Structure formats: structure tokens, C-alpha cells
Amino acid sequence: MDYVEALREKIGHDAVILNGSVAFILDQNGEVLLQQRPDKSWGLPGGLMELGESFEETLIREVKEETNLTIKTYQFVDILSGRDFFVRLANGDEYYSVTALYHVTDFDGTLKADSDESMQLKFFPFNNVPEHMNPRWRQFLDVFIEKYQESSTGVNS
């Protein structure tokens, strides 16, 4: 049983603070990797921290689990938290997310969707991401674009 499941067994649906990491993985064309989740919404690879993990360890583990890619290098982008990052899930669970955003600058492996968490994985131009994107993931994407649109990363909004 993972940390969040164990925590929920004890406290039910009450609001908690949950930490996680999200990856901005760009291909050679400067397109961003998005993940279609089981609810059919699109988001970024990443997830919640397990006990004892650092943000960086969470990033590496989640990307491997969800995409089959091994991160070689990455750069910290920002941490997003506060009232604007309150989440109420369909099952009634509530939490405030504290999410570390990372730009993955080098990776290895063959892209393969994890059938439990991903319906499909696909690279998209920043100016043509799917409309059915979770609003929280869209906020993360907007922060990344704002911070990097004039840098050498090739991000064009």
C-alpha cells in the first residue's frame, strides 16, 4: 500500500497537503510530452511523493513508471502551491498540492504508456495542446511556457 492510500485509510477524505513532481519532457522538435489519463483528460507525466522521497526521486520514479523513460538530466523550474492548488477528487478526497516542476533536458528509453495510469503518450506543440486538459495541468504548462518562451529551449507559445 502506498503512502497516500495508507493516509486516506486513517483520515478519510479530509484535506491534506500532498507533495509531487511534474516533468516537462521535450522532444527534438521542442514539443512537450503529454499523457492521456484514464479519465481521458491530458496532463504531464508526474505524481505524488512517497515517504522518504525527495522531489527529484519522485520525478525520476514517476516518469519511469508512466512513460518507461529514464531521466538523465533535468532542471528545476518552480514550485507551485497555495490556495490555487486545492484539489477535490471525484471520490471526495481533498488536498492542497505542492508541486515541483522540472524541465527534463535528457532522457533514454522507448516511450511506452503504463496501462494503469496512461491511455496514451504523445508529443504536442505548445500552441496545439489538447483542449481536454485538466485545469491544474494547464496551470503547470502555462508557468513553464512563461518561464521558458524566450529561452533556448525552443518553447513557442
From TrEMBL:
* Nudix hydrolase domain segment(s): 16-146
Task: State a single Gene Ontology molecular function.
Answer: hydrolase activity
Swiss-Prot/TrEMBL cofactor(s) = Mg(2+)
Q: Which of UniProt's keywords are assigned here?
A: Hydrolase
Family as reported in the entry's similarity comment: Belongs to the Nudix hydrolase family.
Entry protein name:
ADP-ribose pyrophosphatase YjhB, NUDIX family
Origin organism of this chain? Alkalibacterium subtropicum
Lineage of source species: Bacteria, Bacillati, Bacillota, Bacilli, Lactobacillales
